[in-house]
Amino acid sequence: MSASVEPYTRRARRREFAIQLSAMMGVQAMVTMGMFAIPVLAPAIARDIGVPATSVGFYTSLAYIVCVFSALAGGGLIPQFGALRVCQACLVLLALAFGCAISGVGIGAGVAGFVLCALLAGMGNAPPTAASSHVLLRATPPAWVNLVFSIKQAGVPIGGALAGLLLPGLALWFGWRAALGCTAAACLALAGILQIWRGEMDADRDTARRIGWHTMFTPFLLVWRNRELRAIGVACGVMSGVQTGLLSIFVTYLTHAVGLTLAAAGLALATAQVSGMFGRVIWGMLADRTGRPVLVLAAIAGGVAVTSISAGRFTPAWPLPAVHVVSAMFGMLVLGWNGVVFAEVARMSPAGRIAEATGGIVSMTCMGMVVLPGSLVAIIETSGSFSVGFTVAGILTALVAIDFLRRSARRGFG
């Protein structure tokens, strides 16, 4: 290869990698914004449909029941149809969910529409994680895997921050239906933009491959039969359940128990989400630098335990800056673990089965999201205290930290 051609090739590869990473971050941000839309707008929606605002925990659990199965399906669909096509389909499903809500078929029409919106949103949320792992691992140098996957997963807190910053204001000025309508339009717009790169990014799809109901649970079985992948999956279930459960009630907690306005509570959630974005990058860099990702995960889980309990102690007497400081620390930790975990899963996956293994892990992750949000709401309603729910979440993550420390000491996968 001539000296003039090689620099051009390197530039082309860097450009291709930048496009892939940006596209996957964008998808992660948008599907997360879609999943946070209902929890963020819960106080406004609850007033209209006459249900307790804490019912958002049951909406979240229902959505993630569907995610358990959509993650498995996505892991099988990606090799056949391509990662980008699956992402486009997921964005369209989210748009349909909010279209139902604002048309009167959805949330505004009562419980049945609320269920329909949750089902469609759950179908669209899970597969993009496996899709992004499939796309990025093949283009990422091994020494950068944790950092790149953490940057990609930073799309999650970015999406949550956008939801916290934008949707309460839109709801205040134009109503919550208009806020959901804008979210649906953004999902469709991104799905259309992705078509520009669909040909090159899905060039490795196997169009001859066929899937059926008999292959639905293949990703889960792939993970469950591998001891180390199974251990990661169980830890992910607890961490993601705590993450989703606490963040889904965060705005409601701050408005009801702390006395903040909806806009101020949304800003506190945005603070946590933005901190989580930086946290993911920092933890990814640390995992690459130390070569001990499981030890890093143990530190994160321990930090989540401490900050969860601290956040549950907010009262109306707390000054707003102090609320934001604890929210920032909480977000940096509770949202910081995902990139390191999915980098480990991608590295440990059998050759050619990254999408399936990631789909299996995401399915187990969603199982935690199914159980814990509703459980935390039940604990809060039974005890009459948000603080009790935050404390239970802290205890669970402390147990995860202990397990990670034990595994790191044994050098199981750390």
Task: Summarize the model shown.
The protein has 17 helices and no strands. It has 414 residues and is mainly α. The protein has a single domain, classed as Growth Hormone, Chain: A, CATH 1.20.1250.
Overview of this structure, please?
With 414 residues, the protein is mainly alpha-helical. The chain has one domain: Growth Hormone, Chain: A (Up-down Bundle). The protein has helices at residues 5-49, 56-81, 83-103, 111-125, 127-137, 145-153, 155-174, 176-194, 198-201, 218-224, 227-256, 262-290, 293-311, 320-334, 338-348, 354-383, 386-409. The radius of gyration is 20 Å and the shape is globular.
CATH level 3 topology? Growth Hormone, Chain: A
Order of helices and strands: HHHHHHHHHHHHHHHHH
CATH domain class name: Mainly Alpha
The CATH superfamily is known as: MFS general substrate transporter like domains
